[in-house]
Amino acid sequence: MKLAGQHEVSTAVASGDVVPDARGRAGAGSRRLVVLTTQVVAVAVILGLWQLLSGRVIATFLISNPADVFKKLADLLQTSAMWQNISTTVQELVVGYALGVVGGALVGWALGAVRFAGSVFEPIINGVNGIPKIALAPVFLLWFGLGIWSKVAQASMVVFFVMFYNVYMGMRSVPKPLTDVVHVMGASRRYVVRKVIFPSLAVPIFAGLKAGVPFAMIGVIVGEFVAADKGVGYYVLEATQQYDAAGLFAGIVIMVVMVLIGLTIVNAFQRRVLRWQRD
Amino acid sequence: MLRMDSVSHSFITPTGQRMEVLSDVSISVEENEFFTVVGPSGCGKTTLLNIAVGLVEPAGGTVRHVTGASGGRPGAVGYITQDSNLLPWATVMENVMVPLEIRKVKRSERREQAAEWIRIVGLGGFEDHYPRQLSGGMQKRCAIARTMVYDPEIVFMDEPFGALDALTKTTMQKILLDLWQTRRKTIIFITHDLTEAIALSDRVGVMTGRPGTLKAVVPVPLGRPRDVYRITGAPGFESLRNELWSLLETDLDP
C-alpha cells in the first residue's frame, strides 16, 4: 500500500530523539562477578564464625555447627522417612499456595472491578486480616483434621491476603488515561479488559506470587507444629524435642531450599511474561 | 464537523462543593480545519476535550460530530494526549496495531498498515522496541502513528507536545502539519504555547480562567505551507501574538 505524501514527513529520527539503549553493558558483567564473589565470601565468613563459636563460646547442643548440619543433612536425604516428610510438606505447600493465590486474585479482581462491592467488603476483609492467623491453627485442626488439609487451609489463608491486596490495589491503579485512549479508539469493554486491564495487573500479580511463597511456607510449618505426623515442620519439632540441633538446622535448610525453588519457578515465569520491563 | 453548543460542566470537589469548570462554551469547527484552544491552566481545556471525544457527559449543552464528505472514516475519532499513553507491555508495532485489531482488520493487513505508518512517522527500525526504550519524541511519533493508522475524521490533541524539549517540539509540529496538509484531517488542538498555536492553526479559540468560557476566536492569517522553524519571523506573527497575549493576560494570576 502506497500512501501519499509520505516523503514530506519522513523526517528521520531527529537529534532530540536519543535512544536510551544498552549503556555500560560491558561493565555490568564484571560488576556482577564482584557482587557474587563478595556474597560467597560473606556466607563463608558467617559459616566459619558459626563453626568457630560452636562448642567454644556457645554449647554445641544449642547451635550445632555447619559441619554437623551438613553431615546430618546428607544422612537424612538417604532415608525414605525424610523424603516422605518432604513430599508431605511439598503437597501442603503447593495446594495451599495454589488455593490462596487463585482465591485472593479472584476476590481482589471482583472487589476491584465492582466499586460498590469494594467499598462494602474491603473493611471487612481488613478486619479478618487483623486476626493473627497463627491463632486459627487449632481451629483448622478441628475443622480439617490431622492430615494435610489443616496445613493447606493455614497456608492458603495467609497467601490469600497477600494476593488479595496486590490484585485489589492493582485493579484500583489501572491507569485511567490508558483505558480512556483505547476506549476512544472504539474498543469494546471486553477488549479493554483483555488488552489493558489484565496486562497492567501482571506486575502486582507477580508481586503477590513472590511474596506468597515464603508466606505459604510459614502457614504450612505453623500447621505442622500444631499437630502433624509427617512433614518437615513435624521433623524439626521432633528434632528440637530430642535436643538434636543438627537435625533442627538441617530441617530448616530444607525449608529454605524449598522456598528458593518456589521463588526460582515464579521468577522464571515472570521473566517470560514481563519481558517488556527488562532491558 | 464539530459543533459544541453552550456546553457547561461542573465537578463536585472532595470537600463537597460544586465547582463550575466550563460555562456556556460554543465552538464550531469546520471540516479540515486546524482549530486550537488556548487558555490559562485549570480553565477546563482538558474537560472540554474529554467531553468532545465522548469520555465525559457534559452537564449542559450538546456535542455533535457532523460526519463530513471527505477524508477519514466516518465517526472515527482520534485522541492524542500529553502523556503518550502507549501500552507499556506492547512493542511499537503492537501498539500501532491496536486500533486495527479493534476494527478487526485482517491479520496480514494489520501488520502491513502499521509498518507503513511507523515508517511515515520516522520510527522505521524501532518496530520491536517497547515504549520504555523510546525517547519522549519517539513515543509521540508512535502515538501519532497509532492514531493515523485508523484514519479518524477528527483528531483531538491535548497539549501533545507540552512535555517535549523545544527542538523535538518544533520537529513534531512540522510532522503534524505535514500530515494534516497531506491527509486532510480536522484537528482540534489544545496548548498553552501561543507560538505553537499560531504556527499550526487556522483559528485560535481563547478561553478565560475558571469557569472556562470561550472569550474570542482569532483567525490566523499566515499563509500555508508554514515554516514552523522560522514562524516567529513571519510577517504578522508578532502582532497576532500580542493580540492573543492581551486577550489572555487579563485572566492570568498576578
CATH class of the largest domain in chain B: Alpha Beta
Do you know the CATH topology of the largest domain in chain B? Answer: Rossmann fold
Helix/sheet category of chain B = alpha/beta
Major sheet characteristics of chain B: 6 strands, mixed
Q: In CATH terms, what is the architecture of the largest domain in chain B?
A: 3-Layer(aba) Sandwich
CATH superfamily caption of chain A? MetI-like
Short structural description:
The complex is a heterodimer of chains A (about 280) and B (about 250). Chain A is mostly helical and about 280 residues long.
Give a verbal description of the structure.
The complex is a heterodimer of chains A (279) and B (254). Chain A is mainly alpha-helical. Chain A has one domain (65-277): MetI-like fold, CATH 1.10.3720. Chain A contains twelve helices and no strands. Chain A has helices spanning 6-9, 25-53, 60-63, 66-76, 80-113, 115-129, 137-144, 148-172, 176-184, 189-226, 232-241, 245-273. In chain A, α5 (80-113) packs antiparallel against α10 (189-226), α5 crosses α11 (232-241) and α8 runs antiparallel to α10 (189-226). With 254 residues, chain B is an alpha/beta fold. Chain B folds into two domains: 2-72 and 153-249, P-loop containing nucleotide triphosphate hydrolases (Rossmann fold); 83-150, no CATH class. Chain B contains seven helices and nine strands, in the order βββαββαααβαβαββα. A six-stranded mixed β-sheet of chain B has the order 5-6-7-3-8-9, with helices on both faces. A three-stranded antiparallel β-sheet of chain B has the order 2-1-4, with helices on one face. In chain B, β6 (152-158), α5 and β7 (186-191) form a beta-alpha-beta unit. The mean pLDDT of chain B is 87. Classes of the chains: A mainly alpha (279), B alpha/beta (254). Chains A and B meet through α1, α9 and α10 of A and β5, α2, α3 and α5 of B.
